[in-house]
User: What shape does this take?
Amino acid sequence: MEAGGLAVLLTGVGKRYDIVSAFARHAFVVAADPNPLAPAQYAADVRVAPPAMDDPDYVPFLERVAREHDVRAVVPLTDLDIEILARSGLPAFVPEPDVAGATFDKYEAHELLLRHGLPSPPTVLPGEDPGRYPVVVKPRRGSGARSIHPAADREQMEFFIGYADEPVMVQRLLSGPHFSIDLLCDMEGRCLNAIPRTMLESRGGESIKGTVVADAELVELGRRVGEALPVRGPCTVQVFRDPELGIGIYDVNTRFGGAFPAPMYAAPPGRTYPELIVRMAAGERVEPHVGEFTAGMTFTRWYWHTELDEQIRPTGRDAVEGGPRPPR
Ligand SMILES: Nc1ncnc2c1ncn2[C@@H]1O[C@H](COP(=O)(O)OP(=O)(O)O)[C@@H](O)[C@H]1O
Ligand SMILES: [Mg+2]
Assistant: This one.
């Protein structure tokens, strides 16, 4: 193990086996997830079962875990506890609480982007006139592409606003090519790298097929978003290059994106985002190298499984031996 076996705590690990195993190559990994069957725990060194994130003991629990394992970095893998960690004294790679809060609410995120002169498409709240159609009606605190409804005219918009049982907003429907930019900032908000990829196919708001592209405009946009907010740790910026509006940012998540493999494949050797986080946690000052990556890599995401015995321990057995290979 590198970095002297420095310990990292990953929260809400769920199914993110790829992220947990990438950290586990460079650090001692403690995976937090209340679910005893969370698949990603099997890539970690230790699993802990924290109380619910809204339980008052959530942070004290993590603090006890952090003390026990001498944890030097905490990285949340879901949106749900970013702001909680930002308010804690834990060494978390998350933005300041106000930025974490604003990016969790897509309308506040829109206002935050505009304040920084960043391109967010026209967005209004229910009761305001969006001016032009088509629009999308979407939850302010949505995730996983839940309850996102395109509306062609006022009548459809009113229908979806009335149908929603949570706060929503109304945003211009963007079209054109669709991209995400995966970036990493240090604890001072300096952008270390920004790696754009196409969203060839997405499911549940996450791209499952994509290609890393050397698009200078998107690299620069990623850097600007990271440094303007500022971000601390990983962040994924989702955009369309709309034929009429140009670049429109429609979502900013201050955590690893769903397509975690893309920046892993594309990053320069020794500078994948998990490695950089571990090096920063060890006290190293990493120099920015924005734009240094290999374009052209494509990923296609798929499902796998872990067989467990009666004690829910992995049996080590696999349904298919040897993993992916070129077709015969
Ligand atoms: N303004 C928009 N114009 C067109 N499509 C959009 C817009 N906003 C969201 N979408 C579509 O909905 C998906 C999920 O949107 P997003 O805002 O990222 O929500 P979530 O956080 O729930 O994933 C996007 O990947 C995109 O396909
Ligand atoms: Mg999204």
